[in-house]
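idk why but the lab printer keeps eating my pages so im just putting this in chat instead. protein + adenosine-5'-triphosphate:
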Amino acid sequence: MNTSGTDLAPEPEKKKLTKQSLQHGLRIFRYVLPYRTKFIIGLVLLTLSSATTMCVPWVIGKLTDAATGKPFVLPNGVALSISQIALALFGIILLQGLFSFGRIWFVTQVSEFTVRDIRQALYTKFVSLPIPYFEKNRVGAITSRITSDVSQIQDTFSLTLAELFRQVMTLIVGVTFIMMVSVKLSLFMLLTFPPIVLLAMVFGRKIRVLSKATQDELAKTNVIVEETLQGINTVKAFTNEQFETRRYTASLTNTLRAALKSNLYRGGFVSFVIIGLFSGIILVLWRAASLVAAGQMSTGELFSFGLYTIFIGASVGGLGELYGKVQSTLGASERILEILDEPTEPTHQPRVAGRAPLEVRGDIDYQNVAFRYPTRPDLAVLKDISFTIQAGEKIALVGPSGAGKSTIVQLLMQFYELSGGKILIDGRPISQYDLTELRGHIGIVPQETILFGGSIRENIAYGKTDATDDEVVQAARKANAWQFIESFPEGLDTLVGERGIKLSGGQRQRVAIARAILKNPAILILDEATSSLDSESEHLVQQAMDELMQHRTSIIIAHRLSTIRKADKILVIDGGRIVEHGTHDELAHNDNGLYANLLKLQFELS
Ligand SMILES: Nc1ncnc2c1ncn2[C@@H]1O[C@H](COP(=O)(O)OP(=O)(O)OP(=O)(O)O)[C@@H](O)[C@H]1O
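predcted complex ->
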């Protein structure tokens, strides 16, 4: 087993080869259909190249016979000289080379195009899957569909299928040829070989199980490395370097043990193959030599027979491995098809061309909204939420952590389906809108701004991908982001994200605000960052937010007093319900109220 760390992918899950799994897995072939002409040409060339390969031992046999005084006579009575046979052999090899080139060229084209199409279909599917899907499935598991599962299929299209085809053909043609040469010897050979191959396959299976165990152990060690490197600050802060090193060493020792055991079997397997297989060959050669000595077989026939036997042996040996690969591919293709069959977001429809663009005023009406997260159906997160917002109003949602504020706004974006009640925008239930169109009118400035790896320009233009430079600069100015962007030597082209510079929290927020300004939505959702900014930064962000909120319906998940004061209405959320509502002044004077208490707390803290 290789523990070099280069082969980290866990052994792909295999599918038992049944009629049903085959039918299911073969649906992936619909992606080959557009390239069927190339595929068929590839198959024809493959047949031709296999056929020419299979001719070689036969012609070599004839060449040997000609050398030992038994000339090769064509059906028309012409005897071929040694040179002519050698020339024919050369011709066959030349053809074989050309066919192989053509086969590879056509088959790999089909596999490359098909794989591109499958990846594209998967990606398109991923981005249109509903949010709960991503909560139920780990990102790693999803990405491995588009990487390793698709690569598995690519291998199959470009290599495994061709190999399988060739091996089966070698087997059929090979057995036919040796039968033609000598039935007796063939039967003897076929009785000797299969038991050895069978044993080898059992051995091979055991090794695969051991390899998988080693890989699993190796994966565990990698998890430790990943975890500790990602959380290196925590490791150091808790002075747990030694603890982690011990943990890693223990895990490495397990890997080592598993690898040594697997290697022992591997070594055993190799010596078994050498001794077993070669004993078989010796046995067959001994029998063949006896036949030649008895004059029942020519030297050339012995030669051909020997070569065909090697071909047959190799293809029988290869078939076991290919069978395993086909099983893995069926598993991979089933997992891919499963994703492709997943329902997309319910109202995700492509825009109908020619229809007038949707206009949104921005009246919002929540009517008895109840909600449970699909991943936690036992917890009623929102119980009975009703409120209205007139177009252009600013409302603030306040309340303790976990009260359900973010959930309320996520439902407006239709990230989840409601468990009860209705949400109306401009008097129409949100489920009746075209999802993409409606989301186009809702802007969001999240608590934690995610910047995509790329330039600041690209990140701002994420709000309107076709924005001109001028529009981007205007948006950056309004968002109070222009000063700091301008101070970078590369300005808008400054790279941010993983490969670029790190922006401060306040700068990131202003980029997010610029994004939202550029999007120019009728409805705005602001999730204020809880982490405090320095007062200068806070002031700039606040100004930018005020600019952004002008003339829009705004829902603010508010943490800052200044925002709350300016709101037209405040909804105090607790335990999934609205427990108080009113203006700042009204609520602040209700001494026993939650809002007044939260306010007091904030004052004390500041
Ligand atoms: N994706 C999710 N899946 C399952 N439960 C969730 C999910 N998101 C939030 N919750 C749960 O829903 C409840 C409400 O969470 P929510 O994020 O809406 O609260 P919040 O008032 O916005 O809190 P905070 O001010 O801390 O952001 C919490 O109990 C939380 O654990």
